[in-house]
Design a protein that fits this description.
The complex is a heterodimer of chains A (about 110) and B (about 120). Chain A has strands spanning about 5, 10-15, 20-25, 30, 35, 40-45, 50-55, 60, 70-75, 75-80, 90-95, 105, 110. In chain A, the strands form 3 sheets. In chain A, strands 2, 6, 7, 8, 11, 12 and 13 form a 7-stranded mixed sheet that branches. Chain A is mainly β. Chain A starts with a strand and ends with a strand. Chain B is about 0% helix and about 45% strand. Chain B has strands at about 5, 10, 20-25, 35-40, 45-50, 60, 70-75, 80-85, 90-100, 115-120. In chain B, the strands form 2 sheets. Chain B has a 6-stranded mixed sheet with strand order 2-10-9-4-5-6, with no helix packed on it. Chain B has a 4-stranded antiparallel sheet with strand order 1-3-8-7, with no helix packed on it. In chain B, strand 4 and strand 5 (about 45-50) form a beta hairpin. Classes of the chains: A mainly beta (about 110), B mainly beta (about 120).
Chain lengths: ~110, ~120
Amino acid sequence: DIVMTQSPDSLAVSLGERATINCKSSQSVLYTSNNKNYLAWYQQKPGQPPKLLIYWASTRESGVPDRFSGSGSGTDFTLTISSLQAEDVAVYYCQQYYDTPITFGQGTRLEIK
Amino acid sequence: QVHLVESGGGVVQPGRSLTLSCAASGFTFSDSSIHWVRQAPGKGLQWVAVISNAGGIQYYADSVKGRFTISRDNSKNTLYLQMNSLRPEDTAVYFCARGGALIGSWFDPWGQGTLVTVSS
């Protein structure tokens, strides 16, 4: 199984500041035949289902604010929120869909400092 | 608008069975693989199972293999999860989520979830 490890487990950032969440996979999720990283990011607010933010490691889902960006390749990935807004308080998960079992990181709780 | 609605959750005793349903609307159901994902209270996300768009391929997490069965009825735009031999550790909110035409795809959207509690 591909193990996904996020860091940190929790993060407190001031409004308007940058938030950075890291995700590391135990093996590469880059499919060389199409040069795509099979990595997605989700946001989950309390009492709600997860919401897709990013897929292919760096493609923003339609309607997602451009302050959210994804980067990385192979085994190391980053979700960046360029200027934190109050509505960004949530738990964030990375996910690999390179192989079954599909696996998620343990989640990173983002709060306002 | 793409919409997924789960139903069938509830309280069940250990060792008993339960079947969850996921009703889909707003897209061509038979074009998409569909997944079940669960979330134990206060915990993270755990993928449970996936079924291909035509229903011929299924994959399961090791923790449910042999006990859970995923199926779909494309004529009814509905996904199912038959859960047998339930254990307390199966207690969770169960979400269905749309995948892509291929099984290796991101999930979008997710349903609101249905709570399954396994307790005597």
